[in-house]
Structures are given as C-alpha cells and as structure tokens.
Amino acid sequence: MFDLCVGVVVEKAKTRRRRRKGKGGDNDNDGDVMMRKRKLSEEQLSMLELSFGSEHKLETERKEKLAAELGLDPRQVAVWFQNRRARWKTKKLEEEFSKLRSHHDSTLVEKCRLQTEVLRMKELLSEAETEIGRLRERVRSSDSPAGSSGQSMEQGFVGGGEFGMEGLESVFCGNAFQWEDHVYYM
C-alpha cells in the first residue's frame, strides 16, 4: 500500500469526492465532481508554516514551487496561506485587544486612585478653611474694643517708647500712618 516517491514515503488514501456547487445557486447534478480536501501531513504543515514564517504573502512562483515540493495542488497551497493569514490576523487582533484591555484596566485603577486623592485633598482643604475661619474669628475678637490684649499691643507700638519712636503719635494712628499728606493703611 505504500509507494516510494522521490525518497518520501507517501501513503495512498482513498479519494473522497464532493460535488461542486453551482454558481447560480442551483445544484448541478451533471456528475461534475472534484477531489475533497485531504488532511495535510505533519511534514507538509511544517514546510508550509516555515514558508509562512518567512513571508506571509504568496507569490505565484513561490506557490508553484511549494506545491511541487509538497505534492499538493497550487490552489490548495494558496487557500492554506489565505486561511493561515486570517488566523494570524485574528491572533494579532486578540493580542492587541489584550494589551489595550490591560492598559484600560490599569488606567481605571489609576483613575480611582486619583479620585480618592482628590477626595482626601478636598477634605484637607475643608479642614484648612475651617481653621482659617477660627483664626479670623480669634483675630476679630482680639481687635474689638472689648479685647484688652489687642489694645495693649497697639498702644505699646504706637505710643510706647520701646522702639525710640517718642513724639510720632501723630504719625501712627491704629492700623494706619500718615506720611506727607497721605494716609497709609496696614
């Protein structure tokens, strides 16, 4: 059952036949038949894969050469390359999708981290604003006439002799001073 053909042992298999489909959509029952697709051997597959690895496109000359080397019909080699390119493209798209999905997921995690950081910063800002309000209130209460400590500080600065400014009481007046007919507020 085996023939020796150019140093390669080839198993003869029963030929399976299938009917050709009519181009007009009608079934042609005129007995026109063609050979069914046979399963490729491991050697044929490895040669085709090796050839595909070097170049994804198949030129006519290369197709004829491969078909002759593998003992296949050139059309079968062309169809194999077409199918293999489709699988290759699908795999590339899946890999790209996987990379994009990973990038998207890491971006979402970063977004959540930043949103948490924004909330924390808003909370700190609110606490700071509350503290500023308390400090303003404390300053207002010390500036009022009822507040004795604020009054003594102003009096010590304006009229006191600690800084060697005796006689300048007419220049300094509370939170303002006069210089050459202009009043400057502090």
Task: Identify the strand order in the major beta sheet.
Answer: 5-6-7
- Biggest beta sheet attributes: 3 strands, antiparallel
Approximate shape: rod-shaped
Number of strands: 7
Low-confidence spans: pLDDT under 50, at least 5 residues? 1-14, 28-33, 147-161
Description:
Helices cover 56% and strands 13% of the residues. With 186 residues, the chain is an alpha+beta fold. The strands form three sheets. It has a three-stranded antiparallel β-sheet, with no helix packed on it. A two-stranded antiparallel ribbon has the order 1-2. A two-stranded antiparallel ribbon has the order 3-4. Strand 5 and strand 6 form a beta hairpin. Helix 2 packs across helix 3. It is rod-shaped. The N terminus is likely disordered.
Question: Which helices and strands, and how do they pair?
Answer:
Blueprint: E1 2-5, E2 8-11, E3 17-19, E4 33-35, H1 42-54, H2 60-70, H3 74-143, H4 148-158, E5 172-173, E6 176-179, E7 182-185
Helix pairs in contact: 2-3
List keywords for this structure.
186 residues, alpha+beta, 3-stranded antiparallel sheet, two-stranded antiparallel ribbon, 4 helices, 13% strand, disordered N terminus, Homeobox-leucine zipper protein, DNA-binding, transcription regulation, homeobox, DNA-binding transcription factor activity, RNA polymerase II-specific
